[in-house]
Design a protein that fits this description.
Rossmann fold; 4 helices; disordered C terminus; 184 residues; globular; eight-stranded mixed beta sheet; alpha/beta; 8 strands; 23% helix
């Protein structure tokens, strides 16, 4: 099975329970060998999580060399993202990038970890308690299986949302506001 875009590995059923699609999950990781490093991006809806992940993908695929940011006129590949919040569909789940990225290590290429990228794709209705709870459940899922987490906020209110993250023992990097791009 080929994927045009990163598939959902976790969805939320009508009963508000998380459902893991083991078949899709296994298909993506079957050709990669451990060790794995799971990197999740969580945070406010429509805050640039997928956008950030796509630039991380560009960087990793270019091995951090040269003009890894690419030409601005080329579309960003990888995770789907929507620039206009009003046009967002209500999507429910966690997407896993459809290929595992090997992180080469100059010292030990045989034991270099494979990077698994996860992205929450869910449009939250802040006035619907089930919608907010479902989004929180997706974040908890990502936090519980990740080796590292990028927490993206766009509203400048990192204190409130970060108070709940302290219970997880994973490195969490917080981006707040606009990402600055280096110029050459």
């Amino acid at each position: 099975m080929e994927f045009d875009e990163p598939p959902f590995i976790v969805t939320i059923g009508e009963d508000s329970r998380l459902k893991l699609d083991e078949r899709v999950f296994r298909q993506i990781i079957e050709n990669a060998k451990p060790p794995f490093v799971v990197l999740s991006v969580i945070g406010s809806p429509v805050s640039g999580k997928s956008f950030l992940l796509n630039y991380i993908l560009r960087y990793l695929k270019a091995n951090g060399c040269g003009n890894w940011m690419g030409r601005p006129e080329l579309p960003l590949g990888g995770f789907p993202w929507n620039q206009d919040e009003d046009e967002s569909e209500e999507l429910t789940g966690v997407r896993m990038f459809n290929e595992i990225i090997s992180i080469s290590d100059d010292y030990d290429k045989n034991n270099a970890p494979n990077l698994v990228l996860l992205d929450i794709d869910y449009h939250v209705n802040p006035y619907d308690e089930y919608s907010v709870c479902n989004y929180a459940a997706l974040e908890v899922f990502c936090l519980s299986i990740s080796n590292a987490v990028l927490h993206v906020e766009s509203d400048g209110n990192t204190e409130v949302s970060n108070s709940n993250l302290n219970v997880y023992r994973v490195p969490i990097i917080i981006f707040d506001g606009v990402l600055l791009c280096p110029t050459e």
